[in-house]
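# nightly structure sweep
# worker-07 picked up a monomer target from the shared queue
# config: single-sequence mode, recycle default, output format = structure tokens
# input follows
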Amino acid sequence: MATLRDIKRRITGVQNTQQITKAMKMVAAARLRRAQDNIISARPYSRKITEVLSNLFAIEKNIDNPLLETRDPKRVAVFVVTSDRGLCGAFNMNVIRRTEDLVRNEYSEFYDSGNIDLYCIGKKGHDYFSKRDFNVVSSETGIFSGLKFDFVVKVNNDIKQKFLDKHYDLVLIVYNEFKSVVQQNLTVKQLLPVKPAVTENVEEINADYIYEPDKMHIINSLIPRYLNTQMWNILLESYAAELGARMTAMDMATENAKEMIRTLKINYNKVRQASITTEILEIVGGAEALKNE
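# output follows
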């Protein structure tokens, strides 16, 4: 049986851990608010560029742009977006397991032939896949705390050029989409070739829009911007989802620590009561022995 000193030390240790998890929850909550503001700020531009492209795709049928070219895949690239730090529940493992399933099962022929490459954004994904039988060709860590649009442009320019050079025929990205503090949607999205949504009501579009200089010039100009916007939104969503997952995990850890402290205090009181009872019995027994003598 544990001694009173052992139980007291354990209570102190759990209390210290509870303070840490509570502080981490508060930090994640503050950062989450800023991350949500960033997502809200990015949505109007993303929504409008998607709307304009959708309208143009509905009107213009003969679009000739190499970023839209659908080819029979011979080599595939997969972006894996995880966090740089842990303590965020199943956030990272959900992405890692989905990526592993995607590579080993859905694209097994490319995996077996060595024609599928991984681009890891986030330290956790890189640490996992680089130690296993996966072809990790690039890794970016420490970018979420000071996420810049320039980073997105650099990454997209690189992968876009490789797609144009036919080094890759298909580019996918696996990430957690932010829905709420307690909910993240595990998502697999196709980045290249680009496939924007198409508006169905063509008559309404023709009545409302006049394009200058012409539709094809605008489409060719918007597609790279659309691709950058998609990647930017994905990274913002993933970072907000990470903070939400960490906030939830730290809240649960704080509550579990609270319950553990309560249980330890009850155990402490039971052991203390048993110790006092034993001491009283020893005193009474000693007194009786002296009395009999």
